[in-house]
Amino acid sequence: MTYTATTPNQSLNDLALGETGILKDFDMPENIAEHLMNLGFVPGLEVMVARTGPGGNPRVYRVDGTEVALRRDLSQCIAVRPLHDAESLHDAAIEVE
Amino acid sequence: MTSPATVPFPAVAKGSPVYKTVAMVGPPNAGKTTLFNRLTGLRQKVGNFPGVTVEHHSGTYRFESGKEVCLVDLPGVYSLNPKSEDERVTVDVLNGNMRGAERPDAIILVLDSSNLNRHLILAGRVIALGLPTLVLLNMADELHKQGGSVDVLLLARQLGTPVALISAVTGEGVDAVEKFLFAAPHPPEPLELPIFGDPRHCREWAVRVGSHAGYQRGATPEWTRRLDSIFLHKVWGGAIFAIVIVAVFQTIFSLGQPASSFLQHLLDHIATILSNMLPPGMINSLAVNGIWKGAGSVLVFLPQILLLFLVIGILEDSGYLARAAVISDKVMARAGLNGKSFIPLLSAYGCAVPAIMATRTIENKRDRIATILIAPFMTCSARLPVYTMLIAAFIPDHPVFGPVVTTRAVVMLGLYVLGFVMAVVTAKVLKSSVLRSRDVAFIMELPPYRWPMWKSLALRLMDRAKAFFFRAGTVILGASVVLWALTYLPMHNGQPPQIADSAIASVGRFIEPAIQPLGFNWKIGVGLLSSFAAREVIIATMGTLHGVDPASHAMDLQEALKSDLSPAGAIALLVFFAFAMQCMSTMAVVRRETNSWKWPLLQFLYMTAVAYIAAFVAYHITLQYWS
Ligand SMILES: Nc1nc2c(ncn2[C@@H]2O[C@H](COP(=O)(O)OP(=O)(O)OP(=O)(O)O)[C@@H](O)[C@H]2O)c(=O)[nH]1
Ligand SMILES: [Mg+2]
To answer: Is B142 in the pocket of ligand 1 (CB under 6 A)?
Structure first.
């Protein structure tokens, strides 16, 4: 796995439309993080910026087979690792067997 | 491999169902209520966005043998750790902590088969409760269409519960429910279930279980993406939203109004016939002026109200509402709320009561109260008749843009906007003072677009119509009859008084000084008083007051009203209705949902004050330009 010179803390907010990242962790109150995880934002999963809503905020993310809209300020608190084309597979980190 | 079969249950001769109370549990928007309605024959509300059901509802599932089971439809949950009031209902019912609801002795778990990886985590937690559970993978039709598949036998083996692939809409596989209910309780097999712990582990477990069952998710429907690239377009999305909203009101106005006027003529005609048929006297007056011209005059607005509910229903069922929440988030953020509040607010265009219930899905308590407090500013269907009548009577009909958008439609739309703006301003004030809270996260799941279920929509409209007739036959009829009686008193030598000397006139005269500054005479004052029973009662009241008055008896209501109001007074009255809180049922539901009298009383005083001041201002401004 190659870590290129990315900023040490890249957030979901930094991904551009159409880009995919791998979820790392959340910097937010426990209950909000839990809600996000229930919606499929589980560390290790791929998340893609599917759509920029009207006016650029909120944006729609595709994660785990669903689409979820989040505001910019919240996506700022979700750390991701950018995904390299070569490793693009579904559920990259935790596909079983 | 897709197998429609259910897990073979231990064969049991058809005797009685094994369970008494069975709860329907599952994530939001998985189709619990659709299935519940199919099994019980009831018509609870279904819609294509998460958080439609916010209360527990019980229904009876009857079998051919005459035996029955009590099914309980519950709000959707993402986990068993409630984040909002609606989720709390589900958890309370499951734990037997809900007053008035029996603790269930079995569970029907409804999952969305097009997203099992995520939903199996909830399955793990629910099965771990230890109650006999039937797992239903719903939306089989969509799974097939999108090329997904799952082996229910393999899944059943891993979950230790019976599993069936069903479609609550087409009915495919639904017989599994009956089999489950008659089979001997399944001994819960010891299972390694990921109840607690790291979400990553739970998710790994779910993926493992799913892949062992050969679960293949279907492709995301292409047209949902295509539609979203239009409706959520970075630039056009907002404009389309505005067009949708304007089109809605335009439709309601331009189609609904002619229907109402047609019915009005019909009604007047019948009133004449009725009046000629009955011998003159008290009975005649009661039937014609009290009942027919009173309660009857509200009935003509039925087509318009149904049209409104039809349009709201289409927005809810298609999935657009969830997008509207996203688009409106920006505006709501200005008010200190978020897009989630838009969903109840939109349903408040129909009626504030269910809208206030729907705020249960708002996680933040203060946001929820703020939304409850502003919801009655949305123009509800009870205001629609009042607006329609006053506009038709006082606003000249000139085209503005082309033949469709007329001055009348513009005024109507303006009133809707006025209510919304006042709601936003009020929210802003509340959220920057007493209800201040940390910025809350806006998290909105977007369901795929679906065709509205026309049949269930039609049934819902029928229920609406029934409710409307019921209201007309109870509150409105009651108010009209009381009012009529007051016009008949005090009697002199067995003769009713002149309207100006009647008991009702004394009441009206008593409050006249308070409302004169708004341009209202005593008759309008009586109408206003009566409208606190229900808004549209003012129409019934005016109908009766003019019906008993020989001077205006022969006129239709719109014409008669011109003797009570100047155009400026009419504008003031419209503005008053836009803002005033004149609805007992709303106050009752606010009391229940906030658990105190403080909020409904505050809301009542505030809205009435706003209405009074705004009507005063509107009256004097209009007088300057148009008298
Ligand atoms: N295609 C298809 N659509 C379905 C099926 N079952 C339900 N739906 C649709 O899914 C949407 C959600 O249905 P509901 O019954 O309201 O879902 P719910 O689980 O009660 O949702 P909440 O009350 O929000 O928890 C509606 O638009 C239904 O028409 C199905 O088997 N197939
Ligand atoms: Mg439901």
So the answer is: yes
